[in-house]
Structure formats: C-alpha cells, structure tokens
Amino acid sequence: MKRKLRVLFASSEAVPFIKTGGLGDVAGSLPKALNATGEAEVRVILPKYKDIPEEYKDQMSHVCDFYMMLGWRHVYCGIETLEYQGVQYYFVDNEYYFKRDGAYGYFDDGERIAFFAKAVCEFIQYVDFKPDIMHCNDWHTALSTVFLREFYQNMEDYKNIRTLFTVHNLKFQGQMSDAVLGDILGLAGNEAAANQLRSDRVSINFMKGALCYSDLLSTVSETYAREIQTPFFGENMDGIYRRRKDALYGIMNGLDQEQYDPETNENLPAHFSANDMSGKAECKAALQRELGLEVNDQIPLFTMCGRLTQQKGLDLVEHVLDEFLQLPVQFAVVGTGDKKYEDMFRNFETRYPGKVCAYIKFDEKLAHRLYAGGDFFLMPSLFEPCGLSQMMAMRYGNLPIVRETGGLRDSVQPFNKYTGEGTGFSFSNYNAHEMLFVMKDALGVYYDNKEALNQLRYQAMTRDFSWNVAAGKYMNIYRRLHPEIESPVAVETAPAKKAAAKKSTTKKTKKKTAEKKGKK
User: I need a surface site. Which of 38, 406, 415, 470 has the fewest CB within 10 A?
Assistant: First the structure.
C-alpha cells in the first residue's frame, strides 16, 4: 500500500509547552521535520502539566475521556488536543498526577510516569488516529512498549503497531522497588515481563523494559551508540545493547538553525554571516564590555556555557586553567551547576580581573551573545550522548574545542593544518594536559594563521545541523519497521540524485556558455 506512515511520538516534554532538557527540544522539532518530508504523519503525546503556559491551554480542545486500570486503581484519563506549527499534539489530563509545579521530582514519580505510559497505549482506542509506529523516548515512556505487548497486542487497533525506543539520557532509567511490578504495573504474575523489567532482586527498571521489548532502538549519535555497548558508558545496560546491536541506531540530534542564526538573531548587538564576518568583531567587543573583560579584539576569548557538572569535563579545566591564563587569553563561563565548580570559576574571576568572567546564572539571551562574541568554545566532556552547545557555537563561528566522545566526535571535525579541513579542535583522552595542548594549538592558529582561522569559521558556520538530516535517517528506521507501506513521495536513490545534479550542472554550464557567446 502507498500512504504516509502514521507515527505516535510519545515524550514527557516538548517545546514550547514544557522543557527541562534536550528531550524537550527534540520533541518540539523532530516531529515537524518528519511531517515536512511528506512521508509521515507524526503526532505527539505528552502529559498536560500545570506549568504549560495558559496561552496553549486556552487553545486546547477536549477529545475524549475514559477510565483505565493501573494495577488495582481505576483512574480517570482525559485527552486534550491542539495543533502547533503543523503538528497535532495530544495532552494526557489527570490533575491528581500532573497538576503540580514542575514535571518531575515527586515521591510518586514511578506511579505518575506509569500512568502516562499506559495512557499512551489506552487512548488509541478512542481517537481516529491509528498509528503504525509508536516512537517512545527515554524512561518516561519506556513502559508504553511493555504495556503494548502485554495488554494490547492482540486487540484490532494495535496488531500492526511497531515500536522504536530512543535513549536521550541513559543516566536516568526509572529504577523503582519491586513492589511497583504488581501494585502499579499489574505485571507481578507475568514471569516473562518480570524477568525483563527486573534489574536485580529488589528493583525494576522501566528503561530496561523498553530495551528488551521495543522492535528497534536508537540513541542520539552514532559514536554514542557504539560507546553504550561498553561498561564505562553503558550504565549497566551495555549487555542488552551488545545483544541487540543489530537493532540499534545512532542518529545525531538536529538544531533549530533559524533560532541560532547570526544574521537574524535579535539578541545580538550586530549581525553577521559566514560570507560577511564583520559584525562578529562588534559582538565580541560588546560581550567583553558586558562581562567586564578588557575590550581588545586582538585577545582571543575562550568560552563555556551550560551545566557546571563533572560530566562536562570541568575537572580537566580546573587542573590547567591557571597555566593557560598565563598566556594572552580571556576566559568566560555562563551557567550554573555543582557548587564546587561555581566556586572554582568565581575564584578564577577574583584572581584574574579583566581576564576571566564567571557569570553563575543561566541567561538564554546572554548565551546567544556568548556564542556570537566568543572565538573558541570549550567542551571537554567526560561523556556526551549528543550535545547541542557545540553546534550552537559553530553556527556563530565560535570554534569548538571538544573531547572525542559521543556526539562531540560526530559533529566536530578536527582542524587539519595540512589540508585546512575542519570545523574545530579535538583531543581523544580524558587528560588535562592533552586538552591544554589542543587549546594552545587553537591559540597558535588565532595568532599566526588568520587565513586558516577564517576558513575554519566559514566551514563551521556552513555545516548543516538542520533537523532535515535527522528526519531522513528516522524515516529510514520507520521504513524498516513497516516495509510494506510505500511512501507517497518518490524517494530518490543516491545514483538518481547524482545523475540529476550532474544534469543540472550541465544545463547551467551550457547556459553560461551560450550567454558568453551572445555577449561576444
């Protein structure tokens, strides 16, 4: 049959409704990009949290309501809907579970999340949208894949649903006491389910259930998909990933390139582009003034922005920053996190006035100005499933210096001084002086090779991180899940595209030749 694939995208958060991390960005951008391919109809489902802005709640319309079993509980579930930027969103309504401040962090999160995961399955009976694929994300929707198989698989509306489970943050897996298995999930008497959910004798793991039950798995970069098959990165799930490696994909997240566009961003004091970098110098001078640094366009400005945690490689920074600051450089950090690292950067600021700025708050508008005004962006993470900051920095010509792990390795091409290729700088081992060596290498390019510096900036700014790239790769996975459903859009093969491009180039060449002859 030839039609669009119907995909139900389940997530606990989505921009612009609610966001606590990168998952919200993905759920707010990827479905729109998938729909734009013309090959899929993607709809999103998430909880109706109290914190969703009233402007969106006012636009919601009631679809249906019903009661469902959650363990021994007979609980109410309402479904609201609205359309936003061409995507249909469904909101699961239950005030007892979701009319609270924030999205997570409550003693009964296990029950709240299980309710949402089961509602994702249950509501399909009551709406006219019958998905071919259920795309679940992180531990908050992991149980949907389990419930689908154990409670719904034999019902008519569910027989042909296939599942994809995407891991965005492997650190959080939804580990609960074994009592949850019967009291909330209603699976205590199901030995097969219990064995695939238990992480040990006294606890169960929601994410483990999805890793075992889902038809296919993915994570947010190709390198991270390989890394999580090892004990260091695998968070005790590496054995499952190794066993299911043929079902595992790595697809790097995209970036909203309109939001991070130095030609149009309203947060910047001046605009610039890859072809006209003149405004970047004005952005740098304005940032230096704003942060209390010496205003000097000849001094390179190294920047950091985001969560101040050990994962971000700040132990490496602590070891060598004193040595690095003896050189003609400036350093600015914007963000919040562990008190240890906040105090560390405040200490550096006190000791190096005019040379170091520690802005220990998170300010979204300032972050844009930091990306635009900085020369180099330091991101030496211990691990990084995907990472977005390095992509944002590149969009503004702020060259990243990263450790080769996860999405950092996949998104940043290291500078090759012989060919001029690259979009930044990188180092391999989690070693402070290896990082320092690469920082000094970047410093050398800044002072001694302006031509290479400008070329690197151009290459970084023109790198395509749009969601269109990721959407095409997800469509390939969807097609694997339902090969019998043909796309209504003609999908060109690589040779066909190459031939078309060659034909187009030939036409342009002939046209130019004819124009030249005409002029003669």
Answer: 38
H helix or E strand, kind and range, residue 349: helix 339-351
- Burial, 79: exposed, middle or buried (Cβ in 10 Å; 0-12, 13-18, 19+)? buried
pLDDT digits over 63-105, tens only?
A: 999 999 999 999 999 999 999 999 999 999 999 999 999 999 9
pLDDT tens sequence across 249-287: 999 999 988 889 999 999 999 999 999 999 999 999 999
- The reported pLDDT for the residue numbered 491 is 56
Q: 167: closest CA among 144, 140, 205?
A: 140
3-state secondary structure 227-253: HCCCHHHHCCCHHHHHHCHHHEEECCC
Helix (H) or strand (E) holding 513: helix 494-519
Predicted confidence (pLDDT) per residue in 41-51, tens digit: 999 999 999 99
> How would residue 490 be classed by pLDDT, with cut points 50, 70 and 90?
low
Q: How many CA atoms lie within 13 A of 339 on its CB side?
A: 0
333: three-class secondary structure by DSSP: strand
Q: Which of 258, 262, 265, 286 is nearest to 276 (CA)?
A: 262
CA 338 to mean position of chain CA atoms: 22
Degrees (nearest 5) of the Cα angle 439, 372, 395?
A: 85
**Residue partners of 479: CB distance under 8 A and separation at least 6:** 5, 485, 487
Nearest to 20 by CA among 46, 54, 56: 46
pTM for this one? 0.90
Distance separating alpha carbons of residues 25 and 274, to the nearest angstrom: 25
Helices and strands, counts by H and E, the chain: 21, 17
Burial of 296-306, coded b for 16+ CB within 10 Å and e otherwise, reads: eeebbbbbbbb
Q: Examine the pLDDT at 505 and tell me if it is beyond 50.
A: no
pLDDT 10s digits, 360-394: 998 989 999 999 999 999 999 999 999 999 999 99
> What DSSP line would sit under 198-209, residue for residue?
BSSSSEEEHHHH
From 470, 467, 474, 476, select the one nearest 494 (Cα to Cα): 476
Q: Given this model, what pLDDT does residue 256 score?
A: 87
- CA–CA distance, 454 with 457 (Å, rounded to integer): 5
The radius of gyration of the chain's CA atoms, rounded to the nearest angstrom, is 25
3-class SS shares of the chain: helix, strand, coil, % to 5:
45, 20, 35
- 8 A C-beta contact, residue 42 and residue 7: yes
* Residue 457 structure tokens: 């900036």
